[in-house]
Design brief:
Radius of gyration: 31 Å
Structural class: mainly alpha
Order of helices and strands: H
Shape: elongated
Strand content: under 5%
Distance between the termini: 101 Å
Number of strands: 0
Length: 60
């Protein structure tokens, strides 16, 4: 008696790939969402540099 191996059809592989890609996209979007919620340190004081007028030359 000879045994035949039953393999899955192509439709099931496509559905699995779609489910995995949707799951992966959901994980990536979740990570981006939670990184946006974290408040990273930022300078509180505005940086202002005064440039003296002596260095400017007017060219006509």
């Amino acid at each position: 008696m000879q045994f035949n191996k039953n393999t899955s059809s192509g439709k099931i592989n496509i559905i699995g790939a779609v489910v995995k890609s949707i799951l992966g996209l959901t994980v990536v979007l979740g990570i981006v969402f939670f990184l946006n919620k974290i408040e990273f340190p930022a300078p509180k004081k505005e940086i202002e540099k005064i440039i003296p007028n002596e260095n400017f030359k007017i060219v006509k």
